[in-house]
Amino acid sequence: MASLLVAASPFLLNTLSERRTRKFSCSVLSSYSSRSFGKPRVLPGGGGATRRVFVGFGALFLDQFAKMASGSRSLVASARFNQGISPVEQILKNVEWPEEFPFKEEDFSRFDESPDSLFYSEPRFVTHIDDSAIRALTDYYSKVFPPSNKPGIAILDLCSSWVSHFPAGYKQERIVGMGMNEDELKKNSVLTEYVVQDLNVNPKLPFEDNSFDVITNVVSVDYLTKPIEVFKEMQRVLKPSGLAIMSFSNRLFFTKAISIWTSTGDVDHAWIVGSYFHYAGGFEPPVAVDISPNPGRSDPMYIVYSRKMSA
C-alpha cells in the first residue's frame, strides 16, 4: 500500500485524507465561461493547490486512499518534496503506478459539453500564454528539436493554431499541424500541411505508423476527453525513439477543460499527463520539467515528455 504514495501528489493525498469535496458555484463557473473570452483565463486559485476532490476518481484508487486516511499525516510527510527543486520536476520520479488507469469517464467531463466545433468555429488570433512563457517554451524547443532542415525529419503539432512557438526560422521537410480552426492553421507559417480534426470526436490520427520524429502539444492537453486513445495514436505514429512533448500552464478555457484538470493544481497536472503516457503503453517513463521563466511574476510553464520505446 505504501507504494501508492509516490503515485499521487501531496495535494491529492491531503484532499483524500480529509475526505472533503469543494465545488465551484455556478457563479464562479459563469465568470470563467469560455464563451465570454477570446483568451484563456488563469485557473482559479492560481493552479497551485487542489480545489476539490476528483469528481469521478477511480473507485479502486479512492478506496485504497480512503483506507490510508488514518495514517495520512505520516504518508504525506514521506512524500515531501526536496527544497530547491520544483515539485513538478519531482512528481514523476520513481513513480509506482496503480495497476489500472485510475480515472473514470466522469473525470473527463466538462462544464460546457456543447460541440467543440462550435466553440472553435471562430478563429482566435491570440496567444494563450504570456510572452515570457512563450520565450521559455521556444527556448526549450531549440534545445530538444532536431536541427533545422535536417533531411527526413517530420514533426506533428497536435491541437495546433496560428502559431506553434517553434524557434524563429525553424524548418523541416514536413511539419504537420492538426487543429480545430482552418483559418488559424492557414496562418501558421511554420506548417507545411495541416489537418482539421476534432480529437475529442475522432482520436484516430490520419497518418501511417512510424511517421513522425517529434509530436508537440501546447497548452491543450487539458482539453482532451479521450487522452489514452490520443496517446496510443501518438505512440503509433511516432518513429522509434520519437519524442512527444506536452506543454501546459495554468491558463485555460475553463468551461472546456476536463473536470480532473480544473479540480487540481500544477503538480497534479504533471502526474495526470505522465499517467497518459504510462497507460497508453509503448512509451519510456515520462519526465516532467519546470521551465517557468519568472515564478510568481509570469505564467508558469511545464513540460511532460516521453519517447516511444525503440523496441
Keywords:
single chain, alpha/beta, two-stranded antiparallel ribbon, 311 residues, globular, seven-stranded mixed beta sheet
- Helical content band: 25-40%
- Name the strands of the widest sheet in spatial order: 4-3-2-5-6-9-8
> How many helical stretches?
11
| Run of helices and strands | HHEHHHHHEEHEEHEEHHEE
Tell me the major beta sheet.
7 strands, mixed
Global morphology: globular
What are the low-pLDDT stretches, counting only 5+ consecutive residues below 50? 1-37, 45-79
Give the integer mean of the pLDDT values. 80
Counting DSSP E segments of at least 2 residues, the number of strands comes to 9
Q: Give the class from helix and strand content and strand pairing.
A: alpha/beta
* Radius of gyration (Å): 19 Å
Strand percentage, roughly? Answer: 15-25%
Distance between the termini: 32 Å
Short description:
With 311 residues, the chain is of the alpha/beta class. Helices cover 29% and strands 16% of the residues. Helix 1 runs antiparallel to helix 4 and helix 9 crosses helix 11.
